[in-house]
């Protein structure tokens, strides 16, 4: 049986020096980009949910190319439902797992139309009840829309959190819990985007660009591809 959030082990306590290091680290992220945002294209809570769901195991660039055409004809749950599963597939066939994603898009659209009046519910439990929307997708949506200071831990965030010494957890859930405890309040709503963008463009999985890193002097992993 998995531990409930209330029974999770407390995040490791940080020393004053470590808290100061983390403070400086996020001050620099903020100085470089004060309002980081997702690179997925969206125009409404619904198109954001759909885009994030489609982005699983796919790049934002490939998703944006597909949704530019898809959202031109189906940018609401009702329009997506009318398009139907077979109607959705040609628009997203370039994205991995497109058949499963098309099925989930239509199933989610049906729930939104029938149970939520065509609107996206902006509370975690209801969001995660939608087909194709797991904890990570819900976290991205809630954080991007300013509803909840959530941190969605993907491969980039997981890698950067470990390299920067912000977390030591072995699972995304553990890393999320540690990050929420380590990151000061003023930066929690933006931390997800800073970490993911840092991992995407600077702290690469192979050959990280330590020479271009604005926080290299604060990084315990500098020069190591860990």
Question: Quick gist of this model?
Answer:
By secondary structure, the chain is mostly helical.
Notable traits:
single chain, 226 residues, mainly alpha, Endonuclease Iii, domain 2, Endonuclease III, domain 1, 2 domains, 11 helices, disordered N terminus
Q: What does it look like?
A:
It is a single chain. The chain is mainly alpha-helical. The protein has two domains: 15-36 and 149-218, Endonuclease Iii, domain 2; 45-133, Hypothetical protein, domain 2 (Endonuclease III, domain 1), CATH 1.10.340.30. Helix content is 55%, strand content 0%. The longest helix has 19 residues, at 98-116.
Give the topology, please.
Blueprint: H1 16-32, H2 45-54, H3 60-73, H4 77-83, H5 85-92, H6 98-116, H7 124-128, H8 135-144, H9 155-163, H10 172-182, H11 188-201
Helix pairs in contact: 2-8, 4-6, 5-6, 9-11
Total number of helices: 11
Helical content (DSSP H or I, runs of 4+) = 40-55%
Classify the beta-strand content into a percent band: under 5%
The pLDDT mean sits at 92
Class derived from helix and strand content: mainly alpha
Count the beta strands: 0
CATH H-level superfamily of the largest domain: Helix-hairpin-Helix base-excision DNA repair enzymes (C-terminal)
Distance between the termini: 31 Å
Element string (H = helix, E = strand): HHHHHHHHHHH
Q: Using only CA atoms, what is the Rg?
A: 19 Å
Low-confidence stretches: 1-7
What is the correct CATH architecture of the largest domain?
A: Orthogonal Bundle
CATH top level class name of the largest domain: Mainly Alpha
Largest sheet: none
Write the CATH fold name of the largest domain. Answer: Endonuclease Iii, domain 2
Note the overall shape. elongated
Number of domains: 2
């Amino acid at each position: 049986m998995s531990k409930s959030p209330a029974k999770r082990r407390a995040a490791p306590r940080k020393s004053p020096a470590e808290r100061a290091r983390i403070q400086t680290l996020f001050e620099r992220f903020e100085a470089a980009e004060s309002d980081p945002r997702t690179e997925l294209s969206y125009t409404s809570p619904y198109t954001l949910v759909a885009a994030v769901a489609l982005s699983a195991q796919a790049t934002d660039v490939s998703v944006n190319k597909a949704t530019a055409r898809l959202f031109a004809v189906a940018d609401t749950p009702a329009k997506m439902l009318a398009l139907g599963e077979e109607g959705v597939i040609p628009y997203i066939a370039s994205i991995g797992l497109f058949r499963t994603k098309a099925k989930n898009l239509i199933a989610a659209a049906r729930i939104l139309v029938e149970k939520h009046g065509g609107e996206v519910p902006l509370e975690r439990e209801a969001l995660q009840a939608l087909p194709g929307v797991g904890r990570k997708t819900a976290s991205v949506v809630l954080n991007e829309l300013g509803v909840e200071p959530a941190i969605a831990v993907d491969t980039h965030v997981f890698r950067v959190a470990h390299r920067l010494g912000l977390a030591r957890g072995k699972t995304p859930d553990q890393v999320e819990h540690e990050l929420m405890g380590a990151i000061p309040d003023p930066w929690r709503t933006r931390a997800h985007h800073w970490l993911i963008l840092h991992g995407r463009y600077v702290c690469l999985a192979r050959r990280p660009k330590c020479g271009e890193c604005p926080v290299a002097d604060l990084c315990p992993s500098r020069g190591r591809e860990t």
